[in-house]
Amino acid sequence: MAVDRRTHRSHVSYIDKSRNYYGAQGYPQPYQWAYNHDVPFASLNKPLSECRIGLVTTSFFERKVDKTAVAGAGAKEPYAALCDDALGGLYNKDLFWDKDNTHTEDLDTYLPINRLREFADQGRIGSLADRFYGVPTDYSHRRTSRRDAPQILEFAQEDELDAVILVPL
Amino acid sequence: MSLVSRHLEEAGLPTVVMGSARDIVEECGVSRFVYTDFPLGNPTGKPGDVEMQSAITGIALDLLERAWEPRTTVQTPFVWDTEANEDWRHHFMKVDDSNRDALASAGDQRRSAQEKVKAEGRGRG
């Protein structure tokens, strides 16, 4: 097998891409992405087969779209909803993903509710929580850290979760 | 989303992030990360491919159990296009001579739309 050689890393750098893309649109100030040196770490305190697992998505329920709205207009709040109510799919057309190369019509490609229920049936996890949570894609670190994250923690505590799977689109 | 993961970890709740924007998640720094090298949109597997979705979700569960320190990233073994067509990497948010003028004018239009909203006193509530 021939050795593949490349001048650039294979992984797409969305930080580089978005800086160049918005720069080309005339936005001279690049977005300041979150960076942390230190990373917190918590361990499971019981076997996974006894754990209640929660899911967090960046998708929302379909809502009436204000045709005059521009991107960034209108507030979005974190929410909790029944997994059963998500089975028909969630709304994410306003989010940033590759609409030319794929689609999000299969829920389990971005929120694996059905797959996790199968793992629960097999005994690999204790259960999937009845509710999942949504967190808005907000380019304000302050709103994400001070409003959204504490709200998601509160939901998780209400539902007595043992671990959480977060899936940004 | 990575910031939310960090907040939960700080409160003692174990988390795993599943995603396809490796640089964004790793710069922010999370405890556990399942990375699938796909176009953005299907971080937990290809549409219709239940087996792949189970495999990727299973790796997230493995990480919850087995990771012993933060910044544990596992790249799943899947490739988007088995023909090794990598156009999607270059196509997304492309900037080159073919679209430079169009992007500049789209930016101008967006700014003037935002100015209009601002002038009317609408916008972020």
How is this structure best described in words?
The complex is a heterodimer of chains A (169) and B (125). Chain A has 169 residues and is α/β, with parallel strands linked by helices. Helices cover 25% and strands 12% of the residues of chain A. Chain A has a domain at 46-66 and 75-167. Chain A has helices spanning 14-24, 83-86, 113-122, 141-158; strands at 52-57, 79-82, 127-128, 131-134, 163-167. By secondary structure, chain B is mainly alpha-helical. Helices cover 46% and strands 10% of the residues of chain B. The radius of gyration of chain B is 19 Å and the shape is extended. The two termini of chain B are 21 Å apart. Classes of the chains: A alpha/beta (169), B mainly alpha (125). The interface between A and B is large, with 81 and 78 residues. β5 of chain A pairs parallel with β1 of chain B, so a sheet runs across the interface.
- How many beta-strand elements of chain B? 3
| SSE arrangement of chain B, N to C | HEHEHEHH
Number of domains of chain B: 2
Question: Strands of the largest sheet of chain B, in order across it?
Answer: 1-2-3
Count of DSSP helices of chain A? 4
Largest interface, with counts of residues having CB < 8 Å to the other chain, equals: A-B, 81 and 78 residues
Structural class of chain A: alpha/beta
Estimated helix fraction of chain B: 40-55%
* Global mean pLDDT of chain A: 89
User: How far do the termini of chain B sit from each other?
Assistant: 21 Å
Major pleated sheet of chain B: 3 strands, parallel
Number of strands of chain A: 5
Largest sheet of chain A: 5 strands, mixed
Using only C-alpha atoms, the radius of gyration of chain B works out to 19 Å
Radius of gyration of chain A: 19 Å
Approximate helicity band of chain A:
25-40%
On the 0-100 scale, what is the average pLDDT of chain B? 92
Distance between the termini of chain A: 35 Å
Uncertain stretches of 5 or more adjacent residues of chain B: none
**Content of β-strand of chain B:** 5-15%
